[in-house]
Amino acid sequence: MFRWCRAPLVALCAGGLVFSTVLASIAVSSIAVPTAAAAPFSPTISPTISPTISPTINWRECGDGFRCGKLAVPLDEADPTGEHVDLAVIMRPARDAHARQGALVLNPGGPGESGVTFLRSAADSLPGSVQDAYDLVSFDPRGVGASSPVDCVDSLDPLFDQSLSPTDDAERSALVDEFRTIATGCATRNADLLSHVSTRETAHDLDRLRAALGESHLDYVGYSYGTYLGALYARDFPGRVGRFVLDGPVDPSLDGATATLSQARGFERSLDDFLAWCSRDSTCSFHHDGHAAAAYDALRARIATDPVPAKDQPGRTLDQTRFDSAVLSLLYAGRPAWRTLERAITSTEDGNASTMLAEADSYEGRGADGADDGALEAFWAITCRDGPVVGDVATTAALETEATRIAPRLGPYIVNTSLACAVWPVPPLPPTGAITAPGTPPILVVGTTRDPATPYEQATALAQQLAHGVLLTVAGSQHTSFASGNRCADRAISRFLLTGQAPADGTRC
User: Fold this and answer.
1) Domain span at residue 213?
2) pTM for the complete prediction?
3) How far apart are CA 52 and CA 45, in angstroms?
4) Is residue 341 domain-resident?
5) Which of 91, 274, 415, 507 is deepest in the core (most CB within 10 A)?
């Protein structure tokens, strides 16, 4: 299970990885699976918003031209008069009042990433024509950021002190125990919330946001995991879909094991590409006479038994788990981050892991005081609720073996991050399956050819599943493409958002 985050547009992955598992490897332990059946979720389309909670937002200025507010939504769809959650919402008005076309809602991915933080950082990176024509809007989904955030433990250091590539039963048992501690903390601190943080519920919150914005149809850009949220919205509210862009898509038809192995291959391929380049290019500081891959493997193996100190953080060292975290984080940005990655690895080899440790901390959401920012806890809460599951701990170990075969450097880490769901206190919902969303206008699906986190084949699959999916293929090595520097892609996506004119299916940039 890996977070599908929108890293290239803005450095958010730290949360910003990640994983996302609506479809990732979720392990359910035979000793910890709740015996109660998962409560059924009825994806019915309600023609009206709950009469007990008015879909309104009281906006206030919150700096740098942004406006902030809260949107009340029912915690439990089945109890609209009961407890509610206040969703944090942010908006920057269209720059050209005369050209304004409405509101454009963006989701940065994750799950667990704050849309409020994302929009503050990313608004200026979007094409100028989009900034001129749209009120740019985002929000923190339930359980995330400032929207009743999931809070399980004070620090994730004990987890990342363990090996996420365990070599024996003792290491695997210790890893499961740490996830059990996190799960127990989640149950203790968030008893009423954990059953109500699914993406399916967030899709209904998204329709409440549409209504509160005064829009008859939703115009939407979803990155990575945000494509799953968008696809669910299109399934449940096809008549309210406006101009939808799903960038770096998730294939909801995949089972957990297949999705996890797909992601393991994607990241391993990205790392292989980096190491092959470093071996060819003598200006790469980790060149090692053309043998960068062998040197990488030797360094990683050495760190597993002899962690490297970070000279700017006395007392802290880089272990193999945090080494892998740092590498994964930098791979999100693709080739533009290769120089940063080679320098960070070289510095670690030379005895100073400061850069790599800082990258790992960012990826894991660790603050200077050791506290975590909650993004990973929200990620686990949402993905463990979403499902699908792949089996018990033994089944997950078998999946780890297969992942090690196809992705020996990164596969085990990607599989074992899902172990939280093996001991999660709330059962998963039934799998979503393929999403067709008949009755929508064209939905633009954007796939990057060498996307490490959501490999390109997932984009082709989603475009084919959707009744009116249109595939735009973008050559690149980063995760997601809109506003990442490809002018052809930006022109095609902007034209679609501004005019509704989709590029021809199969267009390549």
Assistant:
1) 1-49+90-509
2) 0.91
3) 17
4) yes
5) 415
